[in-house]
Amino acid sequence: MMLTNSSDCDHDFQRNELAKIISNLSYEYEASYFKELDNSDYVKFFAYIIIIIGGLIGNISVILTVALNRSMRTTINYYVANLAVADALICIFCMGTHSFGTLTRSFALGAFMCKFSTFMQMVCLLSSVLTLSAISCDRFIAIMFPLHVRITKQRTSIVMQIIWVISIVVSLPFLFFKKLILFEWRDFVEPVCAEEWPKISYWDKDLHECRQIEQYRFTYYITCSIVLYFIPIIVMMTAYSLILWKLWISEVPGERHAANINVQYRARKKVIKMVLVVLIAFIICWTPMQIQIYISALQSEAQSDKWIEQYQWISNYLAFANSFINPIIYGGFNKTFREGFCIMLRCGYRRDRFARNRAIDDPGVENNSKKSSTLFLTLRGVYSSIASISLKTTRSRLTFTTGVTSSPSRFTSKTINGTNKNSSQKSNNMEMMPVYHPNGDGDTSPNMKDTCVSIADGKQLL
Hints:
Structural class: mainly alpha
Low-confidence stretches: 1-6, 348-356, 358-462
Strand content: 5-15%
Largest sheet: 3 strands, antiparallel
Oligomer: single chain
Shape: elongated
């Protein structure tokens, strides 16, 4: 085999010869864009309709929940909303085009949609995968370096913009090499949406025929396979493995309350469950697509075996179904989105409960509702220190009980030891404990129930 410049290997020459042959032949099917549907076509069509409707409802719900609830506007939720935008566009451009393709033999959407639909498919798929990787990196930084690195909304916005720019740039070749080719049969004009990459031609001496290689097409597909699959898989597996290791060996700082241990256990369980589901769903949905990419890169345009066509449909469907599964993972497994969506629909969930669940479901993420709780704990520590000093001087038994006020701007006090003696009692037998209510809504938060701190014989009981 050797390269040659012979006119027999010229691509335009071969196409013109093929056009002459086709013009003298009749179209082998009925002269129509649509085909006669069998049972398998109906199954494929309705399978696409299910994930299109479910994917649109789920992803739009996630987007609206983040957009309409101010307390949901955190860095991690911005990434999830960005993922939902990409998945919603996949439902429209990817699934919509492929579902319509199950009804036709040829591409009936025109030259513009031939280029634009494939371009948008690549943009949305790539942005979805990169967003998944960004989510894993965001959680990795928030949990591994909570005090050293500050994840701001501005940085998150920049990362999301970079994701979309990269997705668009990588997908640009489809705008140039995706074309609508018209095969003019004697009784029908058949439009076919196909890729036309620059070809390298050579003469095969053994077969005595001209052969062509689309070298750029092979390189592009292999590169996309690495970028879309292998690198994100490595990034997510590494990030989530380190996150699990960190959560597993870490301990709750400060005093080991039973409530703190329970919260830590629940947080670990939620993270582990979500991580496993994300990775398993991603690998199951995208591995068949990567195999298809290698098959498409190695086979020629003329090869179209029946099993290859069936496998191509299954791999495409699984990859698109990941956009349907993602809202279930990030919404169904996370109380934040479930309760946030219910708040949006006025389902009666309390906002203080919603804020507490957000703190549990999104560990390491900025939470403005924690500021008041931090103030409460700081005040409690100050007055406990004052009580310790008083204990040494009076050497009496003191019991402090926190109270809850109806206003965040006032302090209340309760008598100690449960007694209600008159004011003539000596002051060294009783102390007043100021308490600050962090919620400020007049309701008693379940997390701020009356807490009794007893100091007896120099020991503090919690």
